[in-house]
Specification:
homodimer, alpha/beta, putative 2-phosphosulfolactate phosphatase, four-stranded parallel sheet, four-stranded mixed sheet, 10 helices, 35% helix, magnesium ion binding (chains A, B)
């Protein structure tokens, strides 16, 4: 059976051998939720970039640009980090350059993996289907908050571990912790997360609607997969049928 | 109210400002459990050191020496990492130099804190009493396993968070996760941990007895506190009375 493991922070990623593995990067609030939403609504591809200047420079190539720092939209970009902004017609068949506080960094640090894909509650079952299709060892990389552990990404890891319980070996401490936390929280994810640090931070920014949206499961069927420099949408066979 | 936070790995410690804080280092299986046991049984003091050669050199000063690597006792030392070995008469009024895979490293990395103390289930209530006495911000540093998250240290963090719930502010994600995991596990810590990686590792070394011992609460009333280069025993006033 392939292995499933969870890395709670990009700061711990050097402790894992990524070669031969598929990495699932998760940043529920809100980078990976927004990426899934954008690609599901017709974005052709997304280039995750590290810093604001590099991101802005992509507008000269006709790309849309998105930037978030500390939960807020950075100045002079087309988008911030709200999934709702990616539902507009103007994203169709466009390319987006995106930089966020935690999520895009986690993607970049995972580059050595065989494949890097993007997960969110919004595409949970599709990510699970993709991993079952591939049958390789998996590492879920939680983007966290500025290197620290966070609850919402951990709950996603636990939800994915539940989905994969019969087809992946997951008896390591981080996966067990994620599993149990998801089991405790599953009947009321929003309630469970209401004390979480980043949820508090976002509440101060008045984006309750975003949080509710990002905690919905299986709204979209695409899995964003890194191909070269770009995230492109993929739909697993079993989900298509 | 002072703050309580949890750092899940020595690899994340640079993300926290230790100045003005008390750090509680925990390595349940078995470094901090053994330290507490030794000091409770009459060891005068313990010097935690980083590497095997340095540790061995202390024998020339008449110190006892203890060394563990990968769960096993290293060659040519007086002790390994089993708490039972520290119950012998020969430890009385002696000084011990000790190096372990994870625990002594976590202590060394915490040096910038106002105070560094050592916690285990064996002295849980005394650690809580000491922290209530001090009324400073607290960071629990889990030694983990070679930098990775582990369950047993996290459960200790959750147990301590429960003890301090009325006197410390603990609404950060790592403390909330520890809290919930402890709540899930509390009625059967050994059963909950039976799938944990390090417990599996130790089972292969046939030290079931050590694990059972280390999961007992409040066997000893001393708190090991770093004073200069040494851990020395302290008994909080409220525990004395």
């Amino acid at each position: 059976m392939p292995l499933l493991d969870v890395c709670f922070s990009p700061e711990l990623i050097h402790l894992y051998d990524l070669k031969g593995r598929i990495v699932v990067v998760v940043d529920i609030l809100r980078a990976t939720s927004s990426m899934v939403t954008g690609l599901a609504h017709g974005l052709e591809k997304i280039v995750p970039v590290s810093n604001l200047d590099e991101c802005k420079s992509y507008s000269q190539q006709g790309y849309l640009t998105a930037a978030e720092r500390d939960g807020k939209m950075a100045l002079d970009f087309d988008f911030g980090n709200s999934p709702f902004s990616y539902m507009a017609d103007l994203v169709k068949n466009r390319t987006l350059a995106m930089t966020t506080t935690n999520g895009t960094r986690a993607i970049r640090l995972s580059a050595e993996a065989d494949k890097v894909v993007v997960g969110a509650f919004l595409n949970l079952s599709s990510v699970a289907a993709y991993l079952q299709e591939q049958q390789k060892d998996v590492l879920i990389v939680c983007a966290g908050w500025k290197g620290k552990f966070n609850l919402e990404d951990t709950l996603f890891a636990g939800a994915l571990a539940h989905k994969l319980q019969d087809s992946f070996e997951s008896e390591n401490d981080a996966t067990l912790a994620s599993w149990h936390l998801y089991e405790t929280a599953t009947n009321d994810l929003a309630g469970f997360l209401s004390k979480a640090s980043h949820v508090q931070r976002l509440k101060n920014l008045d984006i309750h609607k975003d949080i509710t949206f990002c905690l919905q499961q299986d709204v979209y069927d695409i899995v964003p997969i890194m191909e070269g420099d770009f995230l492109v949408p993929y739909i697993p066979e079993v989900i298509k049928n």
